[in-house]
Design brief:
Structural class: alpha+beta
Number of domains: 1
Distance between the termini: 60 Å
Helix content: 55-70%
Number of helices: 9
Largest sheet: 4 strands, mixed
Oligomer: single chain
């Protein structure tokens, strides 16, 4: 395949792989269907649970399930309102707490949610848990996992094209190596990392709205990240090199979003918050 045909193939792939995000209305790159992604996620989830100590029968584990169910209900109410009632039909929701001191939580595609005990002191209660839960569920609902997989695959495909192009141009091997290295670094900092930060920012907004619709005070979002910042000890990398927005920019944005989240919740008859 010559260089022109190769890049035409990539262009066609991108054009036909764009799907509309039902929550934002934006076109996003996604050529990994749920029928492929969900079984993979469920298998990894089961494997993870088998390798870690799941906490059951405690107030904390019950809280994780309770908050998760409320966020799930909020998501369904939102989807019903925008005419996407069947969006969650293939989700298999599950909520687990694992005994691990790591400050972490995640939601796999298809609704498999895990909280680590290490994040609970920073959450400082149910409302803080709801802020984290909303954010992680938002990643799944917005298909960020599939988008990241698609972006990584496209990055690999284009990288192959760059290598073929440099060879076709008769560049010396040393020059080809420099081009390939520059592409790798440039694509990571210039495309893949901002792509990931955009996902985090989007999940912050969607997650805050979900938490508010579920009856949790969205003002807690900024407070949670103030505690996250204090816990990090200032060791976070510069924002341009990080897959997440900086703590300060995140806190500022969450403060700005809190009134909007309350206004969104009001559309569903929610005016008092936990």
């Amino acid at each position: 395949m010559n260089k022109r045909k190769y890049f035409l193939f990539v262009l066609i792939l991108v054009l036909f792989s764009c799907k509309t995000n039902v929550f934002t209305g934006k076109k996003t790159l996604n050529f990994v269907p749920d029928s492929t992604l969900f079984p993979m996620a469920f298998t990894q989830y089961d494997q993870f649970l088998g390798e870690n100590k799941v906490v059951t029968g405690t107030k904390d584990s019950e809280m994780i399930t309770r908050v998760g169910q409320k966020i799930k209900t909020a998501a369904q109410r939102w989807l019903n309102a925008i005419g996407e009632e069947q969006y969650l039909e293939n989700y298999q929701w599950d909520y687990k707490l694992v005994n691990d001191s790591t400050v972490n939580a995640w939601c796999m595609p298809g609704g498999k949610i895990v909280f680590y005990t290490g994040i609970l002191p920073i959450c400082q209660g149910e409302t803080g848990v709801a802020m984290v839960m909303g954010h992680e569920v938002a990643h799944a609902l917005a298909n960020h996992g599939a988008q990241r997989m698609s972006g990584s695959q496209l990055q690999s495909i284009v990288g192959t094209g760059v290598a073929l192009g440099s060879q076709a141009a008769g560049a010396k091997q040393s020059t080809q190596d420099i081009i390939n290295q520059a592409y790798g670094i440039g694509s990571q900092v210039g495309v893949m990392l901002p792509f990931s930060r955009a996902h985090e920012t989007e999940a912050d907004k969607l997650g805050l709205y979900l938490a508010a619709i579920a009856g949790y005070n969205p003002e807690e979002g900024a407070k949670l990240w103030e505690r996250m910042k204090a816990n990090s000890g200032g060791e976070a990398p510069p924002e341009f090199m990080s897959t997440h927005p900086s703590n300060d920019s995140r806190i500022k944005k969450l403060r700005e979003l809190a009134p909007q989240a309350k206004a969104e919740a009001a559309k569903y008859g929610v005016s008092s918050f936990k």
